[in-house]
Amino acid sequence: MYWVKAWVESFKSSLHLKKIILVLIVLLSILSLTLFIIFVSMKLFNFLATNFIPILCVFGGYIWLYQVFKDRQQKKQQNIVSLQELKQEKETELKQIRAEDDYKLIRQYLYLVLADISDTVQLRMPKIHSELDTPNHYIVKNGVNIYQYIVAKNNTSLTTDEIKDVLTRRIEQRLKEQQFPGINQSYYIHTSGIRYPIFLIDSISDMGAYYQLDIAFCGLKFCDYLEAKAYAKYDTMQNQNSQPRDKEF
């Protein structure tokens, strides 16, 4: 079996040789890579050393242009925001001016109505328009200006609902006869088909020595609010009527 032994020895020798060759290849690869990195680094260093100022100028110029562009964008955005805020301020100011004009207009109409029926509803007739003013003039409810006025009592025995009915009828009568200066449209027709007076009394509150009247011009939002309030009142009445009652014995 000499030839087998010789073959094994030959195989071991060749395997050992392959390992040596593999190690040499790895070492040569590492050495080559190291030399390549050193070569590239030297070339890069020489390039940077030779072109340092141009590169610095280009890089600095890029940063400067980027900063200029960024600053302009920020200023542009700030200008847009400032314009929007200014526009909102102007719109708010115009709304307040219109609201004050409407407040004085309704006050004038209310004064005329009270002059007609103040004795009937037992309310004290104000001497001048400004006696009807409240401190805040109006509130915003559901996006609608509700204008508030006060009328002093005069030993009235009527309820707020009765006073509201009398005032509402007189307002509608004056609207029908076009007896309010500056009003050409007497009614507002809602999308539901219901016709509302162009301005009406939303509510009357008993404040002790006087009544507070909440009045508004009719429009889509206010009529939506009125209908929602009417439905809520109807539902409340239905629920109250549907509640079981104790049997009487």
Automatic annotation (TrEMBL):
The keyword Coiled coil applies. It comes from the Bacteria. This is Uncharacterized protein. Keywords: Coiled coil, Membrane, Transmembrane, Transmembrane helix. It comes from Anaerocolumna sedimenticola. Residues 73-100 form a coiled coil. The chain crosses the membrane at residues 20-42, 48-69.
